[in-house]
Amino acid sequence: MEKRDKSIGFLFSDIARFRGIIFENLMRPHGLTHAQAYVLNQLFLEDGLTQTELAARMQVGTVTVSGLVDRLETRGWVKRSADARDRRAKTVWLCEAGQGLLTHMVKEFTTMNNISVEGLSEDEVVEMTRMLRKVRSNLAAKVP
Predict the structure, then answer these.
(1) Model pTM score
(2) Mean pLDDT of the chain, nearest integer
């Protein structure tokens, strides 16, 4: 494992995977999967996105988003409407019950982040955050 830990790619991959597993476990009592929570989070940031816009943000196919939205809609957390700009497209809107999940999601995100930085000083967290932003910026600059 030590050799693997020297590879930044493995570290990033493991961190993302472990955070996904932990978040999935934290959201389970609220009846949400990680992917469903991601859809809701996008709608908290910008309600009324089309399914195509959601798919692009998630980097998945529209069929995948359609299935996620189907399950969220069945639970009464979102609703679809015809898009005023394109009658073939559907926009997705948070329902009141879905908006009520924001408090739970913020609490669980905070829990996950606290687990992630456990044992680090505030200065180390600030420095790590600065470095990760730089890494993200470097990578984003190369994304076509």
Answers:
(1) 0.79
(2) 92
For 23, phi then psi, to 5°, come to: -65, -40
Burial (0-12, 13-18, 19+ Cβ within 10 Å), 45: exposed
The residue whose two tokens read 């470095």 is 131
Question: Kindly report the CA angle at 133 between 15 and 102, in degrees rounded to 5?
Answer: 70
Q: How many CB atoms lie within 10 A of CB 33?
A: 14
- Are 39 and 54 spatial neighbours (Cβ–Cβ below 8 Å)? yes
The model's pLDDT over 111-144, given as tens digits with 9 standing for 90+, comes to 999 999 999 999 999 999 999 999 999 999 998 8
Q: What is the pLDDT of residues 42-79, one digit of tens each?
A: 999 999 999 999 999 999 999 999 999 999 999 999 99
The closest of 103, 78, 99, 79 to 27, measured between CA atoms, is 103
Walk across the sheet containing 90-94 and list its strands: 49-50, 90-94, 78-82
DSSP-derived 3-state class of residue 91: strand
Burial pattern 46-81, b for ≥16 Cβ within 10 A else e, equals eeebbbebbbebeeeebeebeebbebbeeeebbebe
Distance CA 62, CA 33 (A): 18
